[in-house]
Amino acid sequence: MHISKKYLFNLLIFILLFSLSLANNQDKKQEMPLIESTNMEVLYSEEGIVVAKMCAESRLQYENGNSIYPAGMYVECYDKQKRLIATLRANTAYQYVDKEMWELKGDVEVKGYHEGDEQQLNTEELYWNLKTNRIYTDKFVRLETGNELLTGYGIDAMQDLSYYSMSSPEGFVNVDSAEIQ
After folding, report:
1. 137 within domain boundaries
2. Are residues 44 and 9 located together in one domain of the fold?
3. GO: which molecular function terms (predicted)?
4. Domain that holds residue 7
5. Model confidence over 159-171: pLDDT tens digits?
6. One-letter-per-residue 3-state SS of the chain
């Protein structure tokens, strides 16, 4: 039996395309969320004491435990005396369970309430390390304290903004001495 080269070539192309199609379907299957949640309010505790409350409109949780909060999230952090020490919000959030990390994107705002003072940090991207309770970014940041306004690129801070270090400061305004016209 004689098989033409054209027929064999077409058969090989068909098998190749079919294999690629199966591979793409496998990738899409892995990308599908395992659990979808809406209108969430989650309390986090340590030794029976609530240390944080997280609210989100929607969450997509994947098989590996990681989650995406496509409509954003809002978090309140408390100390052991149940006093509010920080708030955090973002337009989109990614939770990496194995790393105990969060990646926050889009109009990120962190407010810290430390010893009666309020600080507010604004940026477009921020990472939150739950192991160390630290936040950091290398993107543009705006930090407003009781009497100062700082701008620059990159910050490493405690999640309640009680301590912070700015990598590349660009602007500093002492609000008390600035004249507003």
Report:
1. yes
2. no
3. lipopolysaccharide transmembrane transporter activity
4. 1-32
5. 888 899 998 888 7
6. CCCCHHHHHHHHHHHHHHHHHHHHHHHHHHHCCCEEEEEEEEEEEECCEEEEEEEEEEEEECCCCCEEECCCEEEEEECCCCCEEEEEEECEEEEECCCCEEEEEEEEEEEEEECCEEEEEEEEEEEEECCCCEEEEEEEEEEECCCEEEEEEEEEEECCCCCEEEEEEEEEEECCCCCCC
